Amino acid sequence: MNNLIDNTIQFVKEKLEGAEAGHDWFHIERVWKLSKKIAEKEDCNVEVVELSALLHDIADPKFHNGDETLALKISREFLESQNTSEDIIEQVLFVIKNISFKNRGEVPENLPIELKIVQDADRIDAIGAIGIGRTFNFGGFKNNPMYDPNIKPSLNMSKEEYKKSNGTTINHFYEKLLLLKDLMNTSEGKKIAEERHDFMLTFLHQFFKEWNVE
């Protein structure tokens, strides 16, 4: 493994120490491994993919008063300290800036394959068994109700509404998680997402069965 990747891993581990469990080093590590797995099937710059995956949540706006510039600033300063070429830095920052679900309406056309790969990996980690665990963890972190039959999912939210949303954890499946399968960019991403999507449907079926004491 090259030194830059090693140093980035070390930097991210230190930076995210004590982070909320759904957005901690283990989330980054899974996204990094998934990105490498998807990258094997694509013609791409693997270094850009790995660096973007490792740095994509270095300062998630959710935990920094919605500040979307902080991650770009921290990533640039770190990569410059490692004497990374400006070309690589620009590509990595482009991925970090355009990866998130809430920004999908603002993303330019013709996205680079490196962004598509890391975005798929990040979205895959939001679904399946891990996705269910992360969703309930974050709902607990925000003290949101698990489920309330009187609160319906809010579909087609604007970016601002999505950022402010304090709906139920179960509604989050309908507002985001179940939509991710059809937003995959790569064929490998689609394949992995399919299985995880089906698992979430099984979970929801069981959840409602138990909730309604059937």
UniProtKB/TrEMBL annotation:
Protein keywords: Hydrolase
SUPFAM superfamilies in alphabetical order: HD-domain/PDEase-like
InterPro entries linked: HD/PDEase_dom (IPR003607), HD_domain (IPR006674)
Gene3D superfamilies named in the record: 1.20.58.1910, HD-domain/PDEase-like
Keyword Protein biosynthesis: no
Origin: domain of life: Bacteria
GO terms for MF: hydrolase activity
Any Pfam family hit: HD
Domain HD: 24-127
CDD domains found in the cross-reference section: HDc
Protein name, per record: Phosphohydrolase
